[in-house]
Amino acid sequence: TGTVDAMRSIDPDDFRTAVDDGVVALQKAGADVVLMNPQYSPRTETMISVPPYLDNMRAVAQQRDVPLFDRFAIMHEWNDQGDFDLYGAHHGLELARRVHDCLGRALSIFVIGAAHLGPTQQN
């Protein structure tokens, strides 16, 4: 959430309002809500300004008491540590598969933790 908005230069306050309205609607419908912020890419960080959208998602998550999966920070850390070359021109399907596999695992751990499930409730 937020990448396309940043690319289109949507006003960050309008973005925040849209995310907040969506969270409220989902909560009123009885849904459990988890927010996930944009993917990190060193190739695009100089072209689009993502921080205002990250800040607004964090604010909505805190205000509405919903968990925020910080995909941006996770991927940024992977890139900084050299776990994945997210800057290289030749990403390929194998890199995408590996990154999404790791994100999926991290997200599943995050959701289980956010749900406060004990070991017997996870099956």
Structural commentary:
This protein has 123 residues and is mainly alpha-helical. It has one domain. It has five helices and two strands, in the order H-H-E-H-E-H-H. The protein has helices spanning 3-7, 12-28, 51-64, 71-81, 92-114, and strands at residues 35-36, 68-69. The longest helix has 23 residues, at 92-114. The protein is flat and about 45 Å long. The mean pLDDT is 88.
Question: Tags for this entry?
Answer:
123 residues; mainly alpha; two-stranded parallel ribbon; 5 helices; 2 strands; flat
Ordered list of secondary-structure elements with their pairings:
Elements: H1 3-7, H2 12-28, E1 35-36, H3 51-64, E2 68-69, H4 71-81, H5 92-114
Helix pairs in contact: 2-3
Mean pLDDT, rounded to whole units? 88
Strand runs, count:
2
Can you tell me the residue ranges where pLDDT is under 50 for at least 5 consecutive residues? none
Assign a percent range to the helix content. 55-70%
**Helix run count:** 5
The SSE order reads HHEHEHH
- By helix and strand content, what is the structural category? mainly alpha
Task: Estimate what percentage of residues fall within beta strands.
Answer: under 5%
Q: Based on the structure, what is the oligomeric state of the protein chains?
A: single chain
Q: Return Rg in Å.
A: 16 Å
Summarize the structure.
The chain is mainly alpha-helical.
